[in-house]
Design goal:
It contains 11 helices and 11 strands. By secondary structure, it is of the alpha/beta class. The strands form 2 sheets. The chain has a 7-stranded mixed β-sheet, sandwiched between helices. Strands 7-8-6-9 form a 4-stranded parallel β-sheet, with helices on both faces. The chain binds 6-O-phosphono-beta-D-fructofuranose (F6P). 6-O-phosphono-beta-D-fructofuranose binds next to loops.
């Protein structure tokens, strides 16, 4: 009988509970292992805070946002002494393997600990959809739906007042949420870090649109686009810049260039809260079940991943490469509808 630990690390993401449920239910069904939940991400692994998980413990959580295990941005490499600071909990709980449900920061940490012997199976998690070696991450679809709903609502008020509204979405250094939500919401321009567009060009698009009788516009801005004036930002535990608010810098520049009243809505953490979409529930459940199988079967240093329609195991190292950006072809489709 092996013992599988499971933790959720880094920023939360709709679908985390579905993964925890997937890992637990599949393990119970297999009957060859037990599951132990680790509280508050890496912090709980350092401090020895665990809770037994069984079928009853994960009932009723499939559609719930957040994570029943809690999460934190604490990291054993930054805030502890690496593998040594988690080894005690592994030994005290007889953990054979830990399923780490994390974004690229947490997966990179897991990979570094694995070099010293940390037994890990990774599950990619982020609303940003930018993890290498997987086609989609759970949470992304939910974030896109929330952003699309917001765009739909902002469109009617923009139209009523003849305003330009900038809708800022998350995504860190990649423009997946902006591109998908912008396409789905019929945005008049989409600004993403991968393909910078001078603000003069955006202004030209908006002026042309207004000349053609549409006196309002929606511009989707990815939080990671270069600000007109670069400022130093604080960093999180994984060394990532804390983003948010760039649209407030872009709005006055566009207003000056166009003469159109320009307002800003920053969606922020709304995009991460609440119930996951059906797509994310299914994807997260499949990833959780697959992670349980890999863990029980003795595979280590691997990550479960969506490849086409299939769930596959890929080396954890592959997921820790350069974050995946929006491909040019997709952005060109979105650009077709600008203005
Ligand atoms: O990586 C997910 C994400 O939501 C990013 O889109 C965003 O920049 C960041 O996390 C925000 O992190 P925090 O909740 O720590 O402010």
């Amino acid at each position: 009988m092996s013992i599988i630990g499971v933790l959720t690390a880094g920023g939360d993401c709709p679908g985390l509970n579905a993964v925890i449920r997937g890992v637990t239910a599949r393990t119970v069904e297999r009957g060859d292992s037990e599951v132990v939940g680790i509280l508050n991400g890496w912090e709980g692994l350092m401090e020895g805070r665990t809770v037994p998980l069984n079928r009853d413990a994960v009932r009723g959580i499939l559609g719930r946002g957040g994570t029943i295990l809690g999460t934190s941005r604490k990291d054993p490499i930054v805030h502890g002494d690496g593998y040594q600071s988690v080894k005690r909990t592994l030994e005290a709980n007889d953990l054979d393997v830990v399923v780490v449900i994390g974004g690229d920061g947490s997966l990179r940490t897991a990979l570094r600990l694995a070099d010293d012997g940390f037994p890990v199976v990774g599950v990619p998690k982020t609303i940003d959809n930018d993890i290498a070696a997987t086609d989609f991450t759970f949470g992304f679809d939910t974030a896109v739906q929330i952003a699309t709903d917001a765009i739909d609502r902002l469109t009617t008020t923009a139209e009523a007042h003849n305003r330009v509204i900038l809708v800022e979405v998350m995504g860190r250094t990649r423009g997946w949420i902006a591109t998908y939500a912008g396409l789905a919401g019929g945005a008049d321009a989409i600004l993403i870090p991968e393909y910078p567009v001078p603000l003069e060009d955006v202004a030209r698009v908006l002026r042309r649109r207004h000349r053609h009788g549409h006196a309002y516009s929606i511009v989707v801005v990815a939080e990671g686009v270069e600000p007109p004036v670069k400022t130093k930002r604080p960093k999180d535990a994984f060394g990532f810049e804390r983003l948010g608010g760039v649209a407030y810098q872009i709005a006055p520049v566009l207003e000056e260039l166009t003469g159109f009243e320009t307002r800003v809505t920053v969606l922020g953490h709304l995009q991460r809260g609440g119930t996951p979409t059906a797509f994310d529930r299914v994807l997260a459940t499949r990833l959780g079940a697959a992670a349980a199988d890999l863990a029980a079967e003795g595979q280590r240093n691997v990550m479960v991943s969506l490849r086409g329609a299939q769930i596959a195991a890929v080396p954890l190292a592959d997921a820790c490469g350069e974050p995946r950006g929006v491909d040019r072809e997709l952005y060109e489709v979105a650009r077709t509808f600008f203005g």
